[in-house]
Amino acid sequence: MSAYKSIPLSLAVTVLGCLAQCVAASQPDAASRNDSAIANVSAIAADKLQAAQAKLARMQQIADRFSAEALASGFADDAWRFELVNHLMRADQDTIGRVETAADLRSALQAAATPAVTGPRADSLGQTTNDLIYVPIAPCRIVDTRNSGAGGNFGASETRTYTYLGGAAQGGATCTFAAGVAPAALALNATVVSSGLGNNPAAFGFLSIYPEGGSPTTSWLNYLGSDTKANAGVAAINQSSGKFSVFAQNPAHVIVDLFGVFRAATGGTPNFIAKWDGNNALGISSIWDGGAGRIGIGTTSPTHSLEFLGNYPQIQLDEVNGRTATLSRYTDRFEITASDVFQVSAGAGGTADLFVAANHDVGIGTGAPVSRLQIGSVGGSGYSGNDIAFGNGTQASGIAQLADHAQWYSTTSIALMPGNGSGRVGINTTAPRTPLEVDGYVGIGPATYGYFNASDNNLHLCGGCIADVSIWATQNVMALEFDALSDARIKDIAGASDKAKDLDTLNAIEVTDYTLKDKVRNGNKPFKKVIAQQVEAVYPQVVSRHADFIPNVYRSADTVEKAGAGYALRFATPHGLSATARHVKLLAEGDTAMRRVDVLAMPSERDVIVDATNLDGRKVFVYGEEVDDFRSVDYEGLTALNISATQELAQRLQRLQTEADAAARAKDTQIATLRAELAAQAARIDALRNLAGEVAVLKAKATEPGVGYAAPAKP
Fold this sequence. Notes:
Blueprint: H1 46-64, H2 67-72, H3 79-90, H4 93-100, H5 105-112, E1 132-144, E2 158-163, E3 185-193, E4 204-211, E5 221-224, E6 228-236, E7 243-248, E8 253-264, E9 272-277, E10 281-289, E11 295-297, E12 306-308, E13 314-318, E14 324-329, E15 334-338, E16 342-344, E17 354-356, E18 362-364, E19 373-375, E20 388-391, E21 396-401, E22 406-410, E23 425-427, E24 436-438, E25 442-451, E26 460-469, H6 499-508, E27 512-514, H7 519-522, E28 527-529, H8 532-538, E29 543-549, E30 555-556, E31 559-563, E32 566-570, E33 583-588, E34 595-604, E35 607-611, E36 620-633, H9 635-702
Parallel strand pairs: 11-12, 18-19, 19-20, 23-24
Antiparallel strand pairs: 1-8, 2-7, 3-6, 3-8, 4-5, 4-7, 9-10, 10-11, 13-14, 14-15, 16-17, 17-18, 20-21, 21-22, 25-26, 27-28, 29-36, 30-36, 31-32, 32-35, 33-34, 33-36, 34-35
Helix pairs in contact: 1-3, 4-5, 6-9
């Protein structure tokens, strides 16, 4: 009889082994039976066996889900059951859960075998401090009384003692076990065959399995006369001798198939993968399995699927021909070293996708690089010895860093096509606002140059001036015009602007003195310009909004820690980010440009978790968050407003001048008239003065002594 076929598909899910409570109804002491047989097992606690029994019962229940499917699909024996149960006995809870929800038997077997455990596994029963280690074996028949030399069938109330190792004297095979201490318990299937023995078919009995030196106080299974019954479970044995006893109440043949053993985890530590220390004790290795899909070697707190911890941890690959490759981690570097070239190939054919030559040149897509880094073939371009070279076999480019500058050579023209031709290029800025934006300038001069300004249409000359130059050309800059779009044919003209209203608007705009918060980039240079928010309140049509970053953090994080897929940046004081911040700009130590990263979470006003990579052990400066209402002022629009307001001032000045001229002319006329009248009055005054003088003379003569007054003769 096959060892697999001895377990019927309707295998009982209530495990009855030496700990079961189900006994034959005819036994008067059934209610008083207990687990006293366990006391015969040296140094093995009862709760360990109970846990083993309970787990095996649960695994059998899971297997029962697929019994009908197995029979219908042609699984003629129970090999699948042994395979599934053995995997489940060593599986973690996640694996067991996947098996329980599997759609069919094949899916269940695949889920149970992933990950496959090939050796003893600590914590088999899901406990952390009180456990046995389950070691599966190939199913092996250790007892079969039907075979010659096994003593024939059991008689009524007969007891026999067997060893778990099997052997011909027991009618079974000699089983193979991993080296180590004797098992504490056996995972086995016991079958009773009571037919053909002259036994009364109406009679019944029970079979008991217990440690050597104990007594049959519990029932393994109940059977009738002329019956065949099987049951699987966990049976304790005498750990000192490795033997167990079998008691049959009525005549029967007994068959015992062993498919796993439980060993005591002597010298073990929870979560460490076990190793056999010699043949007598199970110790611990340096491998730690804490669940959650993480394995640590030299560490009990891995944060990745496989993590090594130690002084300069290494992985070495040795080939039989003597060539080696080593993966090493040192304090200040990570190395992959080989005794010959290093190559990474994807797919068949061995094509070099990544190649490191003996002289340290690196090739991508080529196994014969001629530059420090080469991508593809540079053909006959002659671009060898560069720092970077790339090509398609015909055309190529080479980039070289010289003492004071970097050069880019190419067999073709160089075209910058950001955004597939609709993007932007920034120089000294990571957020260009136009197809080309140059941020920063250099003062050049003293020099004489001409310029236009917004106040008039005239060309002005500046002699001995310092020019703030952002773009310099050694020769002419040619364009059709330097102007703003103003053609009437592209506009829906509503009419001339209200100049008086424009003057009022201009008067309402405030010119402000300020410095920029980004001192690193802009220094403390003072500016005298307008503020967008203030202009927006007065003249909103010249203010636009777009996404940009503001320096509302502008400091380094106090701590940087790995947090799931990102990093947690922590500050000693509130960071200043708004609750709606979705992106921040930051600069990591060693980077040459700022990064735009997503905000994953903001646990508190002092913590923010960002979606960033490679920040371990690096200082991180956080510039601030991206806002979608960053204001910009259209100074051209302000210039037009200034023109309109200036025109209003000019018209008012002209009217005032005309009025002043008219008033001046009227005053001149009035003054001339007054002057004429004054002259006439002066003449009359002179005449009166002369007359007064004559009168005075006459009066003096009239009063002289002896002088009479002779009245003029009358005509």
